[in-house]
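Suppose you are handed a protein chain with no further information: no name, no annotation, nothing but its sequence. What can you learn? This example shows the usual starting point.
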Amino acid sequence: MRFSLFLPTGTASEFAAFDDPSAAFDRIREVAAAAEEGGYHAIWAPDHFMPFGRGAHYVFEVWTTLAALARETSRIRIGQMVTANGYRNPALQAKMASTLDVIAGGRLTFGVGAGWVEDEYAAFGYDFPSGPERLRQLREALQIIRSMWTEPSTTFEGRYYRTRGVVNQPAGLQTPHVPIMVAGGGEKVTLRLVAEYADYCNVQEPPDEVARKFGVLAQHCADVGRDFSTITKTSTGYCIMADTDEQARAQVPPWAPMVFPGDVAEYGLIGSLETIRKRIAVWEAAGVDELIVGFQASTDVETIRRFAAEFIA
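A reasonable first move is to predict its three-dimensional structure. Written in structure tokens, the prediction is:
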């Protein structure tokens, strides 16, 4: 199992103590550099515009952030965890992603989901349709995006989106196309979309539930004639390292239940190094190929280096 880094961009008010946006972005750059030096496989950044909860702290937009970091790094892969389909027209999104793949030298994984933070949609003036409708929109978007990366031109007439002979060049550097991650654990629709369109999945649940949902995904793959082993299975772990488990548990932030289902202190990478090592083994046994680690001390470069020294070979 490989390890990647969930990049702080401000959604958890990581920059509340900063009064200089340039200094805050410099810290993001330093974190990305430490991840690359430490051997993390990828950096994944969230697509949000405002911090969770109250506050007017800095939040950096994901696509411009990753474009900058693509030129500040050379080996580590980059991706969105995940971009919200409703925030950008899918044809434009396909163009942005293929351009970013070129900027990054073929290191982009395009992460996308149906979107979920209703308050953010409202604040920025986006419609927030029902969950099933957002998923139907995502299905159409995936068809347009994949076509624009693999076909000479794309004409599409859907219920929500349409294109007329759109030509997308450059279409990215990777073949057959930029890899796609679809995130979410919805068993009837989201995991079906993974089987039909995606190269990666992300299921953010406790390990036992992750394993069960990978089983659901395997059945969807069988139903559509897809080789389950061709999909990279990822999950997200929240990490707090401390001398004792009790000290680590005491640092779990109040917003954690908004992002991590259940009691993350019971299954996250939260505790002593020995406890974290045991929990890593549980994630691996659940079938996770790539564990994306978000740190409570997310802007502390030494924490990122320490984890790498302890757990990344």
